[in-house]
C-alpha cells in the first residue's frame, strides 16, 4: 500500500512534464527508481534558501502538492552539471531563463582574506543597488569632495564669528579625502591636492585624481562616477560622528588594574 501511494505521487509529479525534480527532503531508493524509469533526474536535500534562489533564477514555482499541474509553472535552464569547488561537490545550473539570481564563488589563502573579500563584495553590491535605486551619480576621484570644499570656503567669506571657523575646518576635512586617496596610491598628496584646489578655484569642478598616470584629470572624460546616494550617506554619517564627538564634554577612563605580586 505504501509503494502504491508513493507510485501515485511520482506519477502526479511526472504529469508536470518535467525532466528534473528538486526536493528539499531525502528521496528513497524506490521513488528514485521510479523517477529514473520515467527519465526524470531527482535532486534531493535542497535547502530552503537555495530552493528560493533556484525558483527565482529558473522561473519556476515552489509547490508542496502536485494535484494541479496546469497551474504550476515549470522552470528552465540549458544545462545542469555536478562540479568540484575545492573539496566540495556542487550542482551548477547554467543558461537559466530568468537570471534573477547568481552564485559568486570567493577563494582565498586564508579565512581573513575571504572575510575581507566578502566584505568588499558586499559593499560593492550595496553601492550598485543604491545606484540602481537612485540613478544620480557624482564625479569620483576626490573631485566631488574638492568641489564641496571649494563651495564651503566660498560661502565662509559671507559668515562671521565662530561659524566661519567651523566651516573652515569642515572644508579642510573634505579636502583630506583626496589627500588620503593620493597617499594610499603612493602619490604626492600635497602636490596633487594643491593642483586640484587651483583647478576647482577656476571652476573646473570635474577634475579629480587619476591613479594610472598619477595626476589630476577630468573625471567626466574618463567616466569615473560614484553613487550620489552612497556619497550623501557617507557625508552625513561623517558629519554626525564628528558632531557626536564634539558634544562629548569629557571621557571617563577606568584606572588600570594593579597586578598582584
TrEMBL record:
One Pfam family cited in the UniProt record for this chain: Cpn60_TCP1
UniProt keyword terms in alphabetical order: ATP-binding, Chaperone, Nucleotide-binding
Provenance organism: Polarella glacialis (Dinoflagellate)
GO molecular function ontology, one term from the record: ATP binding
Organism phylogeny: Eukaryota, Sar, Alveolata, Dinophyceae, Suessiales
Keyword ATP-binding in annotation: yes
Family the entry assigns: Belongs to the TCP-1 chaperonin family.
This protein's name: CCT-beta
InterPro entries per the UniProt record, alphabetical: Chaperone_TCP-1, Cpn60/GroEL/TCP-1, GroEL-like_apical_dom_sf, GROEL-like_equatorial_sf, TCP-1-like_intermed_sf
